[in-house]
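Possible regression after last week's pipeline update?

I re-ran a chain I had predicted before the update to compare outputs. Posting the input and the new output here so someone can diff against the archived version. Not blocking, just want to make sure nothing changed silently.
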Amino acid sequence: MTIPWPSGAGGRQASVKALLMTVFGEFVLPDGRPAWTSTLLHVLGGLGMEEKSTRQALSRMAADGWTSSERSGRRVRWALTRRGREFLTEGAERIYAFGRRRESWDGRWVVLIITVPESRRELRHQLRAGLTWAGFGSPVPGVWVSPHASREAEAKQVVEGLGLELSAYSFNGPYAGIGSERTLVDQAWHLGDLAAQYQGFIQEFAGLRPKPGDPVLLAQIRMVHAWRRFPRLDPELPLELLPPDWIGVRAANVFNDLHDTWRPAARTRWSELCTD
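New output (post-update):
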């Protein structure tokens, strides 16, 4: 059975390698057992991916140090390396905890001022990726903010990892009297775009009722793969800074409810495929 990859929240533009990482994180990591090549080809094929592309992606993952392969007779199975387990464990903690709760806010902000020359575009990209993952937004060039003052340590790690500590300055404290926090939030995070993506996720998955076997397994993978990008997009702002009835809360409830509902049947089917 093949489930066409949707054009919405899960996007076909997602690479086969990224999709394999979702499969390894959702099933191989908690299961603790290697996965047969035939199992991975079956699952990725059910999601519309070509066999050649899947085999190439498996080879790239091994070359990058995320997985290792071992032969058993004429068959090959794939296990996570220590590096792969650590990476996916960290990612799983963030993905599955994301949206489950929002801590009370003390009104404090952390502000980071940092300048990277336009000529060093790759470094600018790495800085943006690292700070965005840490939940920071940029209202104007060279300035990054977060209402989670505790994340200053993450920002410091990003900055020092890129060798930019001599070009950065940080401040920590409450918002002052000039301008408005609402405008700051709108410019730093573009919540309208984020809300539209949450709406797409809800429309795509909330009404699904997959049958046991391959349908529920593939639906679980599609949903997790679509959800895993939201921790990079959503800084989990305090409710005080969000619009009323923020759609991200509803989307998180949809994900958590369906993930818990589908997981037993999905893992049963995965186990069946791994023991064939």
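Follow-up from reviewer: compared with the archived run. The beta strands are 35-36, 67-72, 75-80, 108-114, 137-140, 143-146, 168-174. Marking as no regression found.
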